[in-house]
Backbone:
């Protein structure tokens, strides 16, 4: 890891366990990589996991938009960059850029984060962190210009696909289902032939309510132009909604 011009940078090769059947980097794997470098970057700037833990608070991912202009493949040497852009409304915004072996953008992403009180699970106002985000650590560069907007299930064509019980392998150190797992479940709701033969172009996801160990989430999908929307619900409440679009 290194820090350069307000950005945290990591260089590595895409591993076999992060690649799909066509050898491309999986969307869920990118989210794992983004999460880890985000924590490293925040820690280096003084507002990482341990810093917030002292106050009984933690970061939670609220929204994310990922574009895959030229996704890397197994064994490709890549460079992953991240930087924070300060606040946009109630959200703390962090962008990511992955460069492929040719130095060109392979994956681009923007993410919107919130802070929760770990004990009560309540969202906290941004003032809890505003004084820890000095302007000289912010970077005005944008991987994707606009923060991720709202993703909703279409009114027509919705069908229930599966149920999933949140289990050990889904849960992270904060005690809820990890954000990357939602995209893994969504991809598993799609026809295998589709995901095998069509490359993912973009993913937009909203995390609406955390999922805890033992909860059963019902998974629904509906077609949209260029792809699918998948929603997870507990009872009548949406836990997450993700739009997955494919190359033509």
Residues:
């Amino acid at each position: 890891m290194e820090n350069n011009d307000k950005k945290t940078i990591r260089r590595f090769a895409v591993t076999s366990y992060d690649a799909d059947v066509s050898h491309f980097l999986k969307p869920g794997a990118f989210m794992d990589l983004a999460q880890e470098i985000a924590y490293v970057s925040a820690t280096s700037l003084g507002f990482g996991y341990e810093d917030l833990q002292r106050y009984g608070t933690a970061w939670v991912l609220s929204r994310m938009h990922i574009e895959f202009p030229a996704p890397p493949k197994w064994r490709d040497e890549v460079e992953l960059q991240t930087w924070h852009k300060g606040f946009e409304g109630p959200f703390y915004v962090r962008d990511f850029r992955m460069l492929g072996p040719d130095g060109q953008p392979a994956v681009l992403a923007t993410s919107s984060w919130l802070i929760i009180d770990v004990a009560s699970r309540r969202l906290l106002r941004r003032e809890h962190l505003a004084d820890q985000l000095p302007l000289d650590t912010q970077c005005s560069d944008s991987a994707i210009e606009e923060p991720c907007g709202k993703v909703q299930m279409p009114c027509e064509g919705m069908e229930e696909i599966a149920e999933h019980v949140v289990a050990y392998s889904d849960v992270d150190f904060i005690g809820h289902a990890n954000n990357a797992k939602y995209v893994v479940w969504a991809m598993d709701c799609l026809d295998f032939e589709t995901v095998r033969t069509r490359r993912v172009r973009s993913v937009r996801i909203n995390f609406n309510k955390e999922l805890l160990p033992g909860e059963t989430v019902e998974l629904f999908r509906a077609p949209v132009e260029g792809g699918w929307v998948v929603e997870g619900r507990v009872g009548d409440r949406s836990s997450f909604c993700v739009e997955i679009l494919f190359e033509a």
Q: What stands out?
A: The helical segments are 27-44, 49-53, 127-130, 179-188, 192-197. Residues 27-44 form the longest helix (18 residues).
